[in-house]
């Protein structure tokens, strides 16, 4: 039995006196897309940042392919196959698109860089079309694609994505989700934080709901998507579709989302 | 029809030779909710920068309430009642969440020393009102628990909500909301939208917003203006715009 790609257990972290994660556990198998949803301030972004070593963990463990990595520096993690795409500030604005990608390639042995760049250029035509444009002059959606492309250049086994579709026009959202579907076929594990929860859960194999820094619920993407409680508390509005139109209300009393 | 509250005419702004806004014109009528939509890179946020005085247009004119504002600095425009929020929320991180909202309140007589001394009762009453309204807004955006914490401890989404509360606190004539729903939990979006609508209905605030959530755009707007490549390519009611082939091409993509 092989070990999970990522296994997070009882993770706690925060900023200064403010504790954000209060014991979060999460597992990602190889090739699996896992989606994390929850209200604003639940600790979703902090979870990704702690796993990637940007926020020091206070307790708990993070294992990548069985090896403890909690608190390891981000650059080392990138070389071990873990990469992170932040929601904002995710490109070097004064460098060209091509230069942004080359920086990603620096994580690879010299002999493998050219090939990795070529593969990513095929997956992301924008990288070739705009190779000489300064990344700072790209639109929000184009930057997201360049950031995603740069992360893929490092040939990660696991990719952490913080709100890949935030701030994008419908057409660009569709493009990003198409790319994610393609990546899903490449054998890369993904942990994705998304407010576009319906779409993300539809793409994901499994999902976790965080609330107030703790695990609130977990299940397959499908199951969470059709759970009336999840719809009411986290997805907003009524669940749009077919299945039993009777109970989109919460069954009262249980599990208040926030105070 | 009365002249528009905001009139933008043939506005151009280039960066390094690239025309981000390229001859855009639009009207926002008093008491309306107008949505500005368009693909990423269409120039929507740059147009917001020009209207709110954060950047200056290379050419073209912008009038607010019948007066030119295109040469005024941002703070003067804000004083006239035209305020904005940012796509990436900006908070005063070393002040508490509550203080951030209180600072946005207009007409605080306590700021002037002589009134503090001479008109204590009126000053105190006004401060109580301001505080009550601030707490109400924090409740609305689900930040009451964090009222006394430093704004720097809020998450990205929560900072957006704080920014939204601050914009409402200023009781503006025209508010420009730059993607108010991006990064906000879907469960909260409906309520924020209700607040935008009631702000207009009860306080007569005019709203111009950039938003990609089409349910929000189509559900709440009186008018929709569509930008692409720096210019306005269509404008009309939500229904008109939704059926416009150019809009579908430029923005909506293949119908789902």
> Which architecture of chain A per CATH?
3-Layer(aba) Sandwich
CATH architecture of the largest domain in chain B: 3-Layer(aba) Sandwich
Structural class of chain B: alpha/beta
Beta content of chain B comes to 15-25%
What is the CATH fold-level name of chain A? Rossmann fold
Question: CATH superfamily of chain A, please?
Answer: P-loop containing nucleotide triphosphate hydrolases
The chain-level structural class of chain A is alpha/beta
* Main sheet: strands, sense, barrel of chain A: 6 strands, mixed
Strand order in the largest sheet of chain B? 6-7-8-3-9-10
Oligomer: heterodimer
Order of helices and strands of chain A: EEEHEEHEHHHHEHEHEEHH
Short description:
Chain A is 35% helix and 24% strand. Chain A has 259 residues and is α/β, with parallel strands linked by helices. In chain A, α4 packs antiparallel against α6 (140-153).
SSE blueprint:
The complex is a heterodimer of chains A (259) and B (256).
Chain A: E1 6-15, E2 18-28, E3 33-37, H1 44-51, E4 57-64, E5 67-68, H2 74-79, E6 82-85, H3 97-105, H4 110-123, H5 125-129, H6 140-153, E7 158-162, H7 170-184, E8 189-193, H8 197-203, E9 206-211, E10 214-220, H9 221-225, H10 228-235
Parallel strand pairs in A: 3-8, 3-9, 6-7, 7-8
Antiparallel strand pairs in A: 1-2, 1-4, 4-5, 9-10
Helix pairs in contact in A: 3-6, 4-6
Chain B: E1 6-15, E2 18-28, E3 33-37, H1 44-51, E4 59-64, E5 67-68, H2 74-79, E6 82-84, H3 97-103, H4 113-118, H5 120-140, H6 156-169, E7 174-178, H7 186-203, E8 206-210, H8 214-220, E9 223-228, E10 231-236, H9 238-243, H10 245-252
Parallel strand pairs in B: 3-8, 3-9, 6-7, 7-8
Antiparallel strand pairs in B: 1-2, 1-4, 4-5, 9-10
Helix pairs in contact in B: 3-6, 5-6
């Amino acid at each position: 039995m092989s070990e999970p790609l990522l296994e997070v257990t009882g993770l706690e972290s925060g900023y200064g006196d403010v504790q954000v994660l209060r014991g979060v556990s999460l597992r990602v198998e190889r090739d699996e897309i896992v989606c994390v949803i929850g209200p604003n301030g639940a600790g979703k972004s902090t979870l990704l940042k702690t796993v990637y070593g940007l926020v020091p963990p206070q307790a708990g463990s993070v294992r990548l392919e069985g090896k403890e990595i909690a608190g390891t520096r981000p650059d080392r993690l990138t070389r071990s196959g873990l990469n992170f795409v932040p929601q904002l500030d995710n490109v070097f604005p004064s460098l060209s698109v091509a230069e942004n990608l080359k920086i990603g390639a620096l994580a690879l042995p010299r002999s493998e860089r050219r090939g990795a760049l070529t593969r990513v250029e095929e997956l992301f035509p924008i990288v070739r079309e705009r190779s000489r444009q300064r990344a700072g002059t790209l639109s929000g959606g184009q930057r997201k694609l360049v950031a995603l492309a740069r992360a893929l250049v490092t040939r990660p086994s696991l990719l952490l994505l913080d709100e890949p579709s935030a701030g994008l026009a419908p057409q660009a959202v569709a493009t990003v989700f198409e790319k994610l579907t393609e990546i899903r076929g490449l054998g890369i594990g993904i942990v994705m934080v998304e407010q576009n929860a319906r779409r993300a859960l539809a793409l994901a194999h499994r999902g976790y709901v965080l609330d107030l820094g703790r695990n609130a619920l977990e299940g397959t993407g499908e199951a969470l998507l059709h759970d009336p409680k999840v719809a009411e508390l986290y997805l907003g509005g009524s669940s749009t579709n077919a299945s039993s139109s009777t109970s989109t209300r919460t069954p009262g009393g249980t599990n208040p989302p926030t105070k | 029809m009365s002249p528009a509250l905001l009139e933008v005419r043939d506005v151009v702004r280039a960066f390094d030779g690239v025309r981000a806004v390229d001859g855009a014109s639009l009207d926002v009528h008093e008491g309306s909710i107008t949505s500005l939509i368009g693909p990423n890179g269409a120039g929507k946020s740059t147009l917001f920068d020009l209207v709110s005085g954060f950047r200056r247009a290379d050419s073209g004119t912008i009038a607010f309430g019948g007066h030119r504002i295109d040469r005024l600095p941002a703070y003067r425009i804000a004083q006239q009642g035209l305020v904005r929020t940012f796509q990436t929320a900006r908070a005063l991180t070393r002040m508490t969440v509550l203080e951030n909202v209180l600072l946005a309140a207009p007409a605080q007589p306590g700021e002037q020393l002589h009134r503090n001394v001479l008109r204590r009762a009126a000053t105190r009453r006004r401060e109580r009102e301001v505080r009550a309204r601030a707490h109400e807004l924090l409740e609305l955006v689900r930040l009451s628990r964090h009222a006394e914490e430093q704004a720097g401890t809020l998450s990205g989404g929560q900072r957006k909500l704080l920014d939204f509360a601050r914009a409402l606190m200023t009781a503006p004539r025209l508010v420009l909301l730059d993607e108010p729903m991006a990064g906000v939990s879907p469960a909260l979006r409906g309520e924020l939208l209700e607040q935008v609508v009631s702000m207009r209905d009860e306080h007569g605030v005019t709203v111009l917003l950039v938003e990609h959530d089409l349910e929000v755009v189509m559900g709440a707007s009186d008018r929709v203006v569509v930008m692409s490549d720096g210019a306005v390519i269509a404008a009309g009611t939500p229904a008109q715009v939704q059926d416009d082939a150019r809009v579908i091409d430029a923005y909506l993509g293949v119908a789902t």
